[in-house]
Specification:
Layout: E1 5-10, H1 16-26, E2 29-34, H2 39-45, E3 49-52, E4 78-81, H3 83-91, E5 95-111, E6 127-140, E7 146-151, E8 154-161, E9 166-169, H4 181-192, H5 201-216, E10 220-224, H6 229-242, E11 246-252, H7 260-270, E12 275-279, H8 281-288, H9 294-315, E13 319-323, H10 328-333, E14 360-362, H11 370-379, H12 384-387, H13 407-426, E15 435-449, E16 452-465, E17 473-474, H14 479-492, E18 496-501
Parallel strand pairs: 1-2, 1-3, 3-4, 4-9, 10-11, 10-13, 11-12, 13-14, 16-18
Antiparallel strand pairs: 5-6, 5-7, 7-8, 8-9, 15-16, 16-17
Helix pairs in contact: 5-6, 5-11, 6-11, 8-9, 13-14
């Protein structure tokens, strides 16, 4: 019997995580593995089905990622998406060509043949709006395959070998832009792979509690608590599991938002959770002095966190574990171990601990996405104001200050950010946004205040709306509101002469500036 798991083999698509998230939303556990993972590992997992992700490469060139042909001997249902479809076709002796008529964005497909993938999908005149992102296309079908969908520029927009349960889709069913994409994935998961639901919030909590108890036993656990959603939910979970054996350390690294130290300490003290404050701003700022490269800043901050935890751990007798709020996107975005996708950013929660540190790592929410963490947090009675907080990067304001991080720049950014967030809450806009913050720019601009010339700092406001943080649109905040925030910042912070608004989506930009 298979393991009621869907594996996604990652060929480097920006949407790979999203496929995994969609499968979990459907109610089945999914996991992402590199496309070149050893076939024996796949067999050891014994998945119900495998999805081959998209990717930035072209199968028409040599030395690009390819599907392991032995997968075709395993009798595991396969679904190739975009590049995944193309590598299936090529390895099965179909023909893939580069097309002059590329498709990026919305497209319309028509059904060419009945397919189990499209059962229950509501069509408009036998057609469906989908999201395309490809230059190559399958030009000739592999043997024993038939075409199930077509678009104007792609005569083979979907194919199937019904007998083998192998399918390919040139479009991306995992993105919200594809109409009824979740239904198509659901058909693959339940009708083709015969999965049963196994991924509900109550089941996840029960499994995590059991896993943590088995892992740490009666040992003491040190948790690096940031006050954000992820580490806060870990604190609530560990408190449920091990109670007095949990020691939370909240590090004031000097890169936090205004008044955040007091707010976090008060919240968790009121919850009865053991929390201690570590004053470490001086060491963080000294190590960041003169550093302007964003990746170097991330690495320095991450390493310093480890040093601080090591110091704090040495003060507490019999601590054997360090807990972290690492979540699945952190692992995937930071991965380069055989992974064909690019490292987007270094993450201080990922990569383990230095060998000199005699602590083992426990990461109970490592397999979860942000929305799953919030659902679990709600079940664990995590305070609502924490669950509703916008994401805040692990390196804090260190990566929202372009250029060198200094005390003066931190002070400016803290004040401006508080003005922005307070006004968003006052205008009942905060909860409608996915993330909002201020960025300090390493430039100065001429301004006029009263009769005086001011040559001072420039700040940027950033606000986005997103479902999954894989793609995002810039928030169309009211002009009057932006004007009010800008006026407050310039009037209340004497070292700022200009405020601008970021109107760039993701892609092409990332949500954070660094």
């Amino acid at each position: 019997m298979n393991n009621n798991t869907i594996i996604i083999l990652d060929f480097g698509s920006q949407y790979t995580q999203l496929i995994a998230r969609r499968i979990r939303e459907i109610g089945v556990f999914s996991m992402v593995l590199p496309c070149d993972v050893d076939i024996e590992k796949i067999h050891s997992i014994n998945p119900s089905g495998i999805i081959l992700s998209g990717g930035p490469e072209t199968v028409t060139k040599a030395n690009t990622p390819k599907i392991d042909k032995s997968l075709f001997d395993s009798n595991i249902p396969l679904l190739g998406i975009c590049y995944g479809m193309q590598t299936m076709a090529q390895e099965l002796d179909g023909v893939v060509v580069s097309s002059d008529k590329r498709e990026f964005g919305h497209a319309n497909i028509k059904m060419a043949e009945v397919s189990i993938l499209f059962e229950g999908v509501n069509l408009t005149e036998d057609s469906l709006d989908v999201w395309m992102s490809h230059g190559d296309k399958v030009d000739q079908l592999p043997r024993n395959f038939s075409t199930i969908a077509q678009s104007n520029n792609c005569p083979i927009a979907g194919f199937q070998n019904e007998e083998k349960s192998w399918f390919g889709l040139q479009f991306h069913p995992e993105v919200t832009h594809t109409n009824q994409g979740s239904k198509i994935l659901s058909n693959f998961v339940y009708s083709v792979c015969k999965c049963k639901k196994n991924w509900e919030t109550s089941d996840i909590i029960q499994s995590m509690v059991s896993s943590v108890k088995d892992q740490v036993g009666n040992d003491k656990v040190l948790l690096g608590l940031s006050g954000g959603v992820d580490s806060s939910v870990v604190a609530m979970l560990l408190d449920k599991c091990i109670k007095e054996n949990l020691i939370c350390i909240f590090v004031d690294h000097g890169l936090l938002r205004l008044n955040e130290v007091k707010e976090v300490m008060t919240t968790f003290q009121d919850l009865g959770i053991n929390i201690e404050l570590s004053e470490a701003s001086d060491i963080f700022l000294s190590r960041l002095k003169g550093v302007t490269d964003p990746e170097k800043k991330r690495v320095i901050i991450g390493n310093t966190f480890i040093d601080v935890f090591e110091k704090e751990a040495n003060k507490i007798k019999d601590v054997k574990w360090l807990a972290q709020g690492t979540i699945y996107p952190d692992v995937i975005e930071s991965s380069s171990d055989g992974d064909k996708s690019s490292v987007i950013k270094s993450h201080h929660n990922v990569g383990g601990l230095p060998e000199r540190m005699d602590l083992k790592l426990v990461e109970p929410i490592r397999d979860l996405f942000k929305d799953e963490v919030k659902k679990i947090g709600k079940e664990l009675d995590t305070p609502e104001h924490i669950l509703k907080r916008h994401p805040f990067p692990g390196p804090g304001l260190g990566i929202r200050i372009m250029g060198e991080v200094t005390k003066d720049r931190i002070n400016v950014l803290q004040k401006a950010d508080k003005i922005f967030i307070d006004e968003l809450k006052e205008a009942n806009l905060y909860d409608s946004l996915s993330q909002a913050f201020v960025v300090y720019l390493p430039v100065k601009s001429v301004g006029v205040v009263g009769d005086e010339r001011r040559y001072a700092d420039v700040l940027a406001l950033r606000a986005v709306e997103t479902v999954d943080f894989m793609t995002a649109t810039w928030a169309h905040l009211p002009y009057d509101f932006i004007g009010k925030v800008s006026n407050r910042i310039v009037n209340e912070i004497s070292t700022v002469s200009r405020v601008v608004y970021d109107c760039t989506g993701k892609p092409p930009a990332t949500i954070e500036w660094e």
